[in-house]
Amino acid sequence: MVKPLDNKFSAQIKQKIDLKTKPLGALGQLECVAFQLVNIFSQHTSDAEFLSKKWVVIAPQLIVFAGDHGIASQGVSIAPSEVTGQMVANFAAGGAAINVLCRQFGWQLSVVDCGILNVPEADLGVISQRLGNITQAFHEYEAMSEAQLEQGLTLGARILTLQSQKGANVYAFGEMGIGNTSSAAAIFSALSGLSPEETVGKGTGVSGEVVIKKQQLLAQALVLHESKLTNARNILRCLGGFEICQMVGAMQQAARLQAVIVVDGFIATAAAMIVIALSPNAQQYMIFAHCSGEQAHAKMLEYLNVKPLLNLGLRLGEGSGAALTLPIMQSALALYNDMASFEDAQVTQVVQGE
């Protein structure tokens, strides 16, 4: 069960932010980030500890889940499924964008094989949590079995629990899987009722003709599974990917542990939507990193009524947008911890409207 946030300190947190030496609200979203982080971090804090404690991000973890998708055989991506395994090897070797960003900012990176065609060599350090080699093509079959779904949710929760032993209080999630924008778009359509024309984008950069083909395949899938798409679990089972499934399990567990969840782009937001449908309180622990260049991601964020921190036109995946939020979170907390109040600095308080 995911507990709702206990807002016992919320008035004090807001007052401390409002009384900093600045006009009210002048630090914009940094104030919102500071409020959310301190509110989450202080869940198990006594009154005395709250007054004296400085709040920091501890051992931030970024987990990349990788999985192959049967729908990729229909030519919905510019790359074949084999590229998933090649990119996982690139992650393991430290050469991908997410490796660079994690090194730059101090994320601790883990890579999980949830079920890809090309199994990584054992000595690469990739965590094996395989549910199979590849999902079924969801326009013809259910993407995964009930047993695979349950195992995936369990394994996702398990990896998060293992990472939590490092003392982390912030978790970000990335993904790799050729064909997974099709899966995310299908999940979004099933949850929101929007048509594939509204949810399908160019993914890795396919042509207009391929976009139309993706829309047709998704429409076919939604009709095929219509009677089963009545709850979030079935939507995930029929339309999801092995990596999305394990990401859902990990996000759920992070919310159960009352930790911060940093949601990356289009695919990660599809996973977050499933988590929220299963456990509505989980959204209170989520920070939405960015609005990606995938055309339906803005609609997802609007559907969830959330405002992302960044809008850089990213559409890489891997958790790249989530990685960029770490210095923002750290800056928000530094301002909360160390910026003087009007009283401390003996500055005349600025009154709103003057």
From TrEMBL:
Gene source species: Pseudoalteromonas aurantia 208
Membrane-spanning intervals of the chain: 257-278
Pathway of action: Nucleoside biosynthesis; alpha-ribazole biosynthesis; alpha-ribazole from 5,6-dimethylbenzimidazole: step 1/2
Keyword flag Cytoplasm: no
Protein name: Nicotinate-nucleotide--dimethylbenzimidazole phosphoribosyltransferase
Known function: Catalyzes the synthesis of alpha-ribazole-5'-phosphate from nicotinate mononucleotide (NAMN) and 5,6-dimethylbenzimidazole (DMB).
UniProt keyword list: Cobalamin biosynthesis, Glycosyltransferase, Membrane, Transferase, Transmembrane, Transmembrane helix
Reaction equation(s) it catalyzes: 5,6-dimethylbenzimidazole + nicotinate beta-D-ribonucleotide = alpha-ribazole 5'-phosphate + nicotinate + H(+)
Keyword check for Transmembrane helix: yes
Protein family according to the UniProt entry: Belongs to the CobT family.
Pfam family membership, one: DBI_PRT
HAMAP family: CobT
